[in-house]
Amino acid sequence: MAVTTSLWQFALVVGVLTLTPGLDTALILRTAALGRRRSAWGVVLGIQTGTLMWGALTSLGVTALLTASHIAYEVLRWAGAAYLVWMGVRMLAGTFRGRTADGEPDGHPLASGADAMVRGFRQGLTTNLLNPKVGVFYVAVLPQFIPAQTNHLAMGVLLASVHVALGLVWSAALVAFARGLRGWLRTGRARRLLDRVAGTVIAAFGIRLALGD
After folding, report:
1. Can you give the pLDDT at residue 24?
2. Which range of residues forms the domain containing residue 144?
3. CA of 97: how far to CAs of 106, 151, 188, 192, in Å?
């Protein structure tokens, strides 16, 4: 298989995956809709950094442990489920205290700046790396697109970079769409509603992960 052919075929596969609504979409939309552009891009960069790391680890054979070791998979699965449920419950609880999940009073968006981007980055990266299904996907799919004559690490990172590029383009569209909702989200009631919806969705992802679905 030629390298260019491999890249295009992989792009088609991960392109469909990128456009499928999921946890990443919920996190990005929620953060951007609250008017936190830097935080939203921090989440995006964290998620894509995690994707790149999964690609590199898969190329090195490290993530094969997830499929070879039941214990390793279960530890990561339960850690990821606990983190997502905690995040979702935190969002829900905050709405009943008149505060957002980030500890800010309703109607006062989180201040922009490096701290906001770092918090978003940490949230996106942690969410991605604690999702064993991402690792299993890469273990099952990535090797099929690595030509035998190529350097596995370099090719794996290149393929993951294609995934990252598509993710960045789609994320930019999500952020732009969500920012259009800022006018409606000026009221505390609307912000609470958004956090209740996002919190429920994220907690549900955590429960689903814990149940192994």
Report:
1. 87
2. 3-211
3. 9, 54, 11, 10
